[in-house]
Amino acid sequence: MPPGASGAARVYMDANATTPLLPQVVEAMRPFWTESFGNASSIHLDGQRARTAVDQAREILAELFHCHEAEVVFNSGGTEGDNTALFGLLRPGDHLITTSIEHSAVLQAARRVGGGGGVGVTYVDPEPSGLIHPEAIRAALRPETRLISVMLANNETGVLQPVEAIGKIAAEAGAFFHIDAVQAAGKIPLDVRRIGCHLLSISAHKMHGPKGVGAMFVRRGTPLEPLLVGGSHERRRRAGTENVPGIVGLGKAAEVAMTSLEDGTWDRVAALRNRLETGLVTMSGTGLNGAGSDGKPVTRVANTTNIWFDHVEGEALVIALDLKGVAVSGGSACHSGATEPSHVLLAMGLDKTRARASLRFSLLKTASEADVDHVLRVTPEAVEKLRAVSPVAAGTLG
Ligand code: PLP
Question: What is the pLDDT of residues 272-288, one digit of tens each?
Fold first, then answer.
């Protein structure tokens, strides 16, 4: 029976949206909902049990980031980390350099500080490949540049940004450097010292942990104002009773992720992704988003590919594939009720039609050959059907 039919297993290729909890993550969290329910701030035994669990998770995160435990701050996820970096560091008169391909958690925070907040903001555009050139960051520097915020892996294309080179530029300029590593954590090694960043945000649910919990690396001495006040939690950097089960789940997910970084998991996923990508672009009227001028993909995380299918409405293809048991994402997002083409693809120079005709396939690390076979079987058929009813493909529109 094909995936998706009559409740059969589905092929989930939307890992960049979210991932399922691993069984060992669920098991690790379980006691902290019930018998070990204490508040990590209480001094009695129940509180101490919770505190010990939070501290153990902190040690694991410090290992993931390659930092000191005191530099790990637990929070509610990537959006909070990104918001905290911008709102916590920038004041009127400062200048922020970010990019036009950031997640909206950075872009909308940048708009807020830039609008009423009196902060000058420069949005650096990527090259057509999706890469941000470090020299474009350097060219945007001003004497009052206080923060540079650049993502590590783009959520739509998977393209990895040259953060080490940008870190050097930030250091030379005396600017703080924040990295949104939400889509990179667990997929590539992170080393905050080598990168030279001051702040880095991650989210548990993108790496087989629970939703609504994340962590931030905050380099010692960084004058980051807390976003949330009201308690002395997390060394006064993030008030609010700790989400103990969530933090334990994040810790376990990070521990497993570190093993996956070393056991060949991502080489296997990259091979599957490459086979999928090669298979899809053999269809006429298709191409890869995230390729250099030589047509070859630039450096990306192993699980992501983004492909345009001319004369196809991406959202229609997402639905057609869903009906065939395949979950993917389109190159557009819903903003205030209207479907807008992806700001990332537009910034890379795609026109609106091609951006709307693009799909993101993001594989889980448990993806199989059979998953790829299925997608390669059903996609051409779905694309052909949509093209057959497309006025543009039929030549009835200009
Ligand atoms: N940053 C990036 C690059 C993301 O892909 C996402 C989620 O899609 C976020 C930030 C927001 O993370 P969260 O869902 O934990 O708020």
Answer: 999 999 999 999 999 99
Q: What is the pLDDT of residues 287-320, one digit of tens each?
A: 999 999 999 999 999 999 999 999 999 999 999 9
Residue appearing with tokens 């390669």: 376
Asked if residue 105 has its Cβ within 6 Å of ligand 1, the reply is yes
For residues 64-76, average pLDDT: 98
* 268 and 225 in a common domain: no
Which pLDDT belongs to residue 398? 41
79 lines ligand 1 (CB under 6 A): yes
User: Which structural domain, as residue segments, surrounds residue 256?
Assistant: 23-260
Question: What's the domain count of the chain?
Answer: 2
Instruction: Identify whether residues 238 and 374 lie together within a single domain.
Output: no
d(CA 71, CA 59): 10
Residue of 335 and 387 predicted with greater confidence: 387
Answer yes or no: is 1 within a domain: no
Residue 137: helix, strand or coil by DSSP? helix
Q: Which residue has the tokens 């993806």?
A: 367
Does one domain contain both 244 and 304? no
Range 55-70 average pLDDT = 98
In 10 A of CB 118, how many CB atoms?
12
- Residue of 183, 303, 344 best suited for mutating to test ligand 1, as the one with most atoms within 8 Å of CB: 183
Beta strands in 284-357 (DSSP E): 286-288, 304-309, 326-327, 329-330, 332-335, 338-341
- Which atom of ligand 1 lies nearest, measured to the CA of 153? 3
